[in-house]
Amino acid sequence: MSKDQTKKGLARVNTARKIWYRIVGPKLFGQMELGETYLTSPETAMGRNIKINLKDVTGNVKDQNAYVKFTVDEVEGTTLKASVAGYELTATSVKRMVRKNTNRLDDYLVLKTKDGKNIVIKTLLVTQSKAQRSLQKQLRQKMKAFLAEEVRNNSFETVVGNLVSRKTQMTLKKLLYKIYPINEAAVRVLQFAKNNAVVMEFQNENSKSSPSAAEMHVEDSKNTVAAEEESTEEMEESSEEEAALPEAA
């Protein structure tokens, strides 16, 4: 068999042509370029998530402890437009915040933004020294009321923008400092809630009515981390009392 006949017998494999697509961020970050991707069709990129270090977005070295999440949701020619989808702190930065002889207060909130998006907020408070449980409860209630109002009066993108600029954290820290000295007031995670998530409702600070069922649900069911911390403190206090008994004798 000749070479010409062999070439004619070979089947041709049709491969789609790929091109480069730019990924740009929202107006919140000046529509800066987040990266590039090599695709056959831009529709395959729809819904993809991108996590970028905040330092690479803002250019500030102090922002290297946080990440911003983006989701591709629009195509315009060879440009893919991404919107903000979340914010979170690194695990190492959270560990550095917590020190000995302090209280770590974690909370979990499900709230609705002004533009109707249900979001999950995981917060972190670190006191300067050990605080009484009554003070810890006041700190939690004040923080929840502040964040509920902040989210209710702003769109999701504005909420993320206030976290990136640390406006929310600084305002919250000053507010809580009036109750008890605070080392850190941070939002560990901000993300979209699942479809079956129950939005929590909080009353205004000026209202004197009894707490809603959603608030009680937060205190009793959702806040498992705080319950574990309180049980640990009880064990530490009981062990200290047992150790002090021989000395008193």
Task: Write structural notes for this entry.
By secondary structure, this protein is α+β, with helices and mostly antiparallel strands. The protein folds into two domains: 19-89, no CATH class; 91-228, 2-Layer Sandwich (Tetrahydropterin Synthase, Chain A), CATH 3.30.479.30. Helix content is 38%, strand content 28%. It has helices spanning 3-9, 54-58, 91-97, 133-152, 156-164, 167-177, 213-222, 224-248; strands at residues 19-24, 33-39, 49-53, 66-76, 79-89, 104-112, 118-127, 182-192. Strands 1, 2, 3, 4, 5, 6, 7 and 8 form an eight-stranded mixed beta sheet that branches. A hairpin with an 8-residue loop joins strand 1 and strand 2. Helix 4 (133-152) runs antiparallel to helix 6. The protein is elongated. The relative contact order is 0.12. Residues 207-222 and 241-249 have low confidence and may be disordered.
List the helices and strands and how they pair.
Elements: H1 3-9, E1 19-24, E2 33-39, E3 49-53, H2 54-58, E4 66-76, E5 79-89, H3 91-97, E6 104-112, E7 118-127, H4 133-152, H5 156-164, H6 167-177, E8 182-192, H7 213-222, H8 224-248
Helix pairs in contact: 4-6
Q: Residue-averaged pLDDT, rounded?
A: 82
Q: What structural class should be given to the helix and strand makeup? A: alpha+beta
Model regions low in confidence, pLDDT < 50 over at least 5 residues: 207-222, 241-249
Distance between the termini: 107 Å
- Can you tell me the CATH class of the largest domain? Alpha Beta
Order of helices and strands: HEEEHEEHEEHHHEHH
Based on CA inertia axes, which overall geometry fits? elongated
The major beta sheet can be summarized as: 8 strands, mixed
Strand-residue proportion: 25-35%
- Domain tally: 2
Radius of gyration: 25 Å
Number of helices: 8
Q: Give the CATH H-level superfamily of the largest domain.
A: Band 7 domain
**CATH architecture field of the largest domain:** 2-Layer Sandwich
How many DSSP-defined strands? 8
CATH topology of the largest domain: Tetrahydropterin Synthase, Chain A
Helix content: 25-40%
